[in-house]
Specification:
By secondary structure, the chain is an alpha+beta fold. 43% of the residues lie in helices and 28% in strands. The protein contains 3 helices and 7 strands. Strands 2-1-5-4-3 form a 5-stranded antiparallel β-sheet, sandwiched between helices. A two-stranded antiparallel ribbon has the order 6-7. It is globular and about 40 Å long.
Amino acid sequence: MMQLRANMDWMLKDLAQSVPQTRQVVVLSSDGLRIAQFGGEPDAADRLAAACAGLQSLAAAVGAEFPHSDGRMRLVVIEINGGYFYLMAAGVGAYLAVLADEGVDAGLMGHRMRDLVARIGEHLSSPPRHDGQVT
């Protein structure tokens, strides 16, 4: 696990440094627990990860309204005064979240996030938890 986290740390750093205006990058489990992060404070990353759990649920509810959809969220982008929030599926039970400043190149961010997910998607999968334990 320690080796995986070290590998993710440099990959998250690479994403943040290759896209100007990136503030924070977080990898999280579907139940809203932070797996890894780059940039920002750990407490902020934990709050962001927890908020993402609710956002995933909302996205699934919206996805259910599309007749030929499997209902799984692939990408959510929220534009906020002062910046952008991105949430992308990154493996079974795992997600990649990014906070970026207003001047970010949205196309570049989407491209770099997809590249990162493709490179390490299988490593980002988070097994289900039962009674607080990974199974």
